[in-house]
Amino acid sequence: MPPRNYILKVCLLGDGAVGKTSLVHRYVYDAFDDKYIMSFGTKVSKKTVELPEAKADLMIWDILGQKTYETLHGAYYRGAAGALAVCDFTRPQTLESLASWVSGFRGVVGEKPVVILANKSDLPKSYGVEDVLAFASTMGCEVMETSAKTGANVESAFWSLTSKMLEVGK
Fold this sequence. Notes:
By secondary structure, this protein is α/β, with parallel strands linked by helices. It is built from six helices and six strands.
């Protein structure tokens, strides 16, 4: 029997400059650019994931991280099957703000899978992964340490989220 085909919308959530755009760029193009370019609105990228039982076209929505545009976020979340919530190991406040990102997302789409990415794991950390794990346990989320620069766990993060989204869809 041929694998089933899916189209899944994925949102990247988190404050500005946490590395959302760099994570998408690393995942889709296997490249890294250290020049910071602030996202305005949302940018959509596509990548196909082939799992043993399914093929999924991921429509990856890289959503602007500025809270001043928070009223737009809900419109971007509609129809999403899951999200990657990104914090930056070099700035503790980005972990603190994930609660509002995740609750805002789930307030629109319901209890969809969210994986928390503690990004910039290649740099000196201002807080530990245990802090991220403690937060994630309150939100019912998996945690992965990533680095868009080195590519560490980027592929795994998208793979894990895709698997979770397909399980929910069954």
